[in-house]
């Protein structure tokens, strides 16, 4: 098996696994019994979406996917910190 064929199969299997992870995270986001579970589901969802975009970027060779993944990572981190601060103190901006 040559390297490009193996890489294609690896990327396809990674995308399938990330899709399953996104489904599980969406379930936790919708059904989560507490707010902490919902925030954890949202955090997992943005991480899986970011990694899915990176695998699409590897497959197509486009840099646009990598830039979109970087933006998703930055906004996801900021939103997770803001939601955690809101749960701890009840306000985001002091």
Structure, explained:
- This protein is mostly helical and 94 residues long.
- The chain is built from 3 helices and no strands.
- It has a single domain (3-89), classed as Orthogonal Bundle (Helix Hairpins).
- Helix content is 87%, strand content 0%.
- The model has no long low-confidence stretch (mean pLDDT 92).
List the helices and strands and how they pair.
Elements: H1 3-31, H2 35-60, H3 63-89
Biggest β-sheet strands, sense, barrel: none
The share of residues in extended strands comes to under 5%
| Count of helix runs | 3
CATH topology: Helix Hairpins
Secondary structure category: mainly alpha
- What is the 3D form? elongated
Order of helices and strands: HHH
CATH class: Mainly Alpha
Helix content: over 70%
CATH architecture: Orthogonal Bundle
Tally the structural domains. Answer: 1
Q: N- to C-terminal separation?
A: 59 Å
Low-confidence stretches: none
Total DSSP E strands? 0
Mean pLDDT: 92
